[in-house]
Amino acid sequence: MKLTKKIKELILVITLANIMGIVVCPECMLSWKSIWRVEVIMVSIWLVMWYGNKFISISIDKYVSWLDNPAKRFALGIIGSAVFSTTAIVSLAVLFKNLFNISIGGGWTNVWVTIVVSLMILLFMLSKRFLYSWRDLSLREEKMRNELLVSRYEVLKNQINPHFMFNGLNALSSLVHEDQDLAVKYIEQLSKVLRYVLQAGKQEVVTLDEEIEILNSYIFLQKIRYNDNLIVDINLDNSGGSLYIAPLVLQMLIENAIKHNEITSDHPLIIKLSQDGKYLRMWNSVRVKEVALQESTHMGLANIQSRYQAITNQKVLIEDTENEFSVSIPLINKIK
């Protein structure tokens, strides 16, 4: 498939070179000697210019994107093509003169041929790269939208799963006999969490205050189960009403920490939530369970990262060491 495409491209370049040879020197078509001379010159110029400018265009794309900085990309394309084309036409003129005793033309002819060929190729290359970039952007946005929908579904599925419900009901059954007042409060907090999961799962972002409020309810449920073996420290400022975050992200991170680490009186799980500039940092101590290590698929973190790619240019930062694990979530000032 790629070979066929390259052959078609080569045929196109040779065809354009032949057409330009006829346009530049129509009287040369009256003699086979002149035809050979013109065609060799034009095909050589077009091959060098075409593939040379193509290489320059692809190289610039690696460092400057049409989507991120179109003006800079356009300027660099013009400059790169001008420098290469001038160098190439002069080198070809010297090569043909010394090796084949063929003169491409006088100074102004060289300049004119260079300008015409370069402009034609440059216009094609810039249009092609821009259209490809625009197409890739459309495909990427569509992919992100699909990933966002899938990740939202995964969040709901992971939060309302048999393990979560079983542990919640099991803790509730014990509380009913031990402390009925606490059992009532437990039911209230559990229903609050489940209601939020169903409602927030339909939203792209929620305020930080909303997320923290439901996070406290979720922590309450978990501390009933783990008591003082689970230590959660939340230290935030008072600007949560004007900041936004993807829903259920913090709850998912705490759930992952509980799932993957030992939680005992000898090795309590410590979780700290703090604000670090434009990021919300969730940190936890690490003492990995053997079973959790084998079962981990990292799907939770992948879902969080894909969701943030769809709503902001800021990246989710992950730090993983032997004794500590942290995830920094971007705080969004304005809904896109």
Notable characteristics:
2 domains, 10 helices, rod-shaped
Structure report:
- The protein is α+β, with helices and mostly antiparallel strands.
- It has two domains: 2-137, no CATH class; 160-330, Heat Shock Protein 90, CATH 3.30.565.
- The chain is built from ten helices and seven strands.
- It has helices spanning 2-24, 32-61, 70-99, 107-159, 162-178, 180-200, 208-226, 249-260, 290-295, 299-311; strands at 206-207, 230-235, 244-245, 269-276, 279-285, 317-320, 324-330.
- It has a five-stranded mixed beta sheet, with helices on one face.
- The longest helix is centred in the middle third of the chain and has 53 residues, at 107-159.
- The two termini are 41 Å apart.
Number of domains: 2
User: In what order do the strands lie side by side in the largest sheet?
Assistant: 2-4-5-7-6
Instruction: Tell me the CATH architecture of the largest domain.
Output: 2-Layer Sandwich
Distance between the termini: 41 Å
Unreliable residue runs: none
Structural class: alpha+beta
CATH topology of the largest domain: Heat Shock Protein 90
Rg is 32 Å
Helix content: 55-70%
Helix count from the secondary structure assignment: 10
